[in-house]
Structure formats: structure tokens, C-alpha cells
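Table 4 source record.
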Amino acid sequence: MRHCSVQVRGLLTRSELDRYNALIEVGHYLENQKEYGHVAVVQKEIDILIFPAIERLKEKSRQRDRDTEDYLRRKAEMEAEMRRIAEEDDED
């Protein structure tokens, strides 16, 4: 069984996490029984289950990128304003 990342697990809802843990347990049991055909079906269900959490993780990343871009833009504006003020002070 392939586990999802800690980041993705952290974004699963309580019900999704409960279902994920149950599916992992079933998958491990099937692996121990060498029922690999059934393991593949369980793994597919896990992949479907975690997809929304993966999308939430991607959105968090996109939001972080937007926040960083906004911060850098505001920082550049402040630096430009500080230079303008310094230039005005030098002229006086």
C-alpha cells in the first residue's frame, strides 16, 4: 500500500481520514493474504479519496505564492517610496 504524504493527510477531513485509515488497514490485510488484485482496487479507492485533499494542498500553495507576490510588490513600493523621500531630503 502506498501512503499519501503527511501534508495531504493533514488536509483530510475527519471522515476522510477515518476512511483512509480503514482502507489502509484493509489493504495491508490483503497484502498479507497475497491478494494483490484486491489490493490494487483498495489503492485506487485511496487515490480517489485523497484527491480533494491534494487539491486543497495545491490551493494552499497557490495562495502562498499570491501572498508572496503581494508582499514583494508592497516591499518594492515601500523601498521606492523610501528612496524618493531620501532623494527629497538630499535636495533640501
